[in-house]
Amino acid sequence: MRATGRLHIGNYFGALANWLEFQKKYDCFFMVADYHAMTTGDLSQKTLAENTQQILLDWLSVGIDPAEATVFVQSAVPEHAELFVILSMMTSLGWLERNPTYKEQRQELGDKYTGNLGFLGYPVLQTADVCLYKATKVPVGEDQKPHLEMGRELARRFNSTFGVNVFPEFEAILTPTPKMLGLDRRKMSKSYGNVIELSENPDSIRKKIQKMVTDVRRPRKEDPGHPEDCNVFYWHQLLTPGERVKEIERDCKGAILSCWDNKNALADRVIAWLEPIQRKRRELEANLDYVNDVARKGIAKAREVAAKTMDEVRQVVGLWGKIDSPTAAH
Ligand code: AMP
């Protein structure tokens, strides 16, 4: 996840929900992508290090468990930058320029934030992130899928160019909500200002939800509603138990439940769901030494694995690499 600030509910439903499951089943590496955050960020803001810490706090407060998974920071493992350089030599510009997420973001964010080489190469760096750990499953939201498709091609190209199977096949794994809609029914995204953060205070959550647009075909409570066209109902489907959702649907269609009451019920639900997460966050905020220690240990483990992969990569490519152990085979 990019170090662009505190995480929102879309990050949870799109990715973290899978991470919490995966950490119980697989050997997981969870990475704060601070280089990636630089591709579209305002570099003069100097908030990168702070953002990285906020993400670590969010992860630990939702239940990412450092005893189960390796939690680390991209820039603290120099091999990411190194493999990125090597992979970029075998990346076709056409792949990058055709990437739909690239095109969409170019349009949304404009030249100032996206007209740089690093942003064009975003999927190449991401491929390095995956390949260094020889990962096979990458739990992400839908917007990342095209990057990973390209990454698969790139990893294959590396293997076939050098005639060795250094990198295994990998695939994107999506949750049932790979593209969660925000308060305004566009994709939830910080750049659209339509998010609720996992650490957002209850007053702010309620005010934002109260302003949500509901069913435009139901101007008065007496009019029957169309839940299928209502963003508040969509959010209830994610956050409210199934039985209650059925009652809401019935009472909305039957013009019994008002949109206002329904929005307040949703706000109650979101606030209650986030309460234990926020409680845990407050504990962690009072113990930043622990959070930093988690990252330190994770970084040490990630470095070990990444260094091993890079030794193999240098060997097959024919690079000298580290001066104390030239790759003699070439
Ligand atoms: P990012 O900040 O773009 O690195 O996002 C972190 C993770 O959350 C990535 O796996 C994204 O695909 C995912 N994500 C971001 N926004 C959403 C959303 N609105 N719905 C689902 N997943 C999302």
Task: Tell me what the structure shows.
- The protein has 330 residues and is mainly α.
- The chain folds into two domains: 9-180 and 287-317, 3-Layer(aba) Sandwich (Rossmann fold); 200-284, Tyrosyl-Transfer RNA Synthetase (Orthogonal Bundle), CATH 1.10.240.10.
- 57% of the residues lie in helices and 4% in strands.
- α4 runs parallel beside α14.
- The longest helix has 30 residues, at 288-317.
- The protein is globular.
- Adenosine monophosphate binds next to α1.
Specify the CATH homologous superfamily of the largest domain.
HUPs
Q: Percent of residues in helical segments? A: 55-70%
Q: How many strands?
A: 4
Name the CATH architecture of the largest domain.
Answer: 3-Layer(aba) Sandwich
The first-level CATH class of the largest domain is given as: Alpha Beta
CATH topology label of the largest domain:
Rossmann fold
Q: What is the tally of helical segments?
A: 14
SSE topology string: HEHHEHHHHHEHEHHHHH
Strands in their spatial order, largest beta sheet: 1-2
List the defining traits of the structure above.
330 residues; mainly alpha; Rossmann fold; Tyrosyl-Transfer RNA Synthetase; two-stranded parallel ribbon; 57% helix; 4% strand; globular; binds adenosine monophosphate
What topology emerges from the helices and strands here?
Blueprint: H1 9-25, E1 29-32, H2 34-40, H3 48-62, E2 70-73, H4 79-88, H5 93-98, H6 100-114, H7 117-120, H8 122-131, E3 137-139, H9 145-162, E4 171-173, H10 202-210, H11 231-239, H12 242-253, H13 259-285, H14 288-317
Parallel strand pairs: 1-2, 3-4
Helix pairs in contact: 3-13, 4-8, 4-14, 8-9, 10-13, 11-13
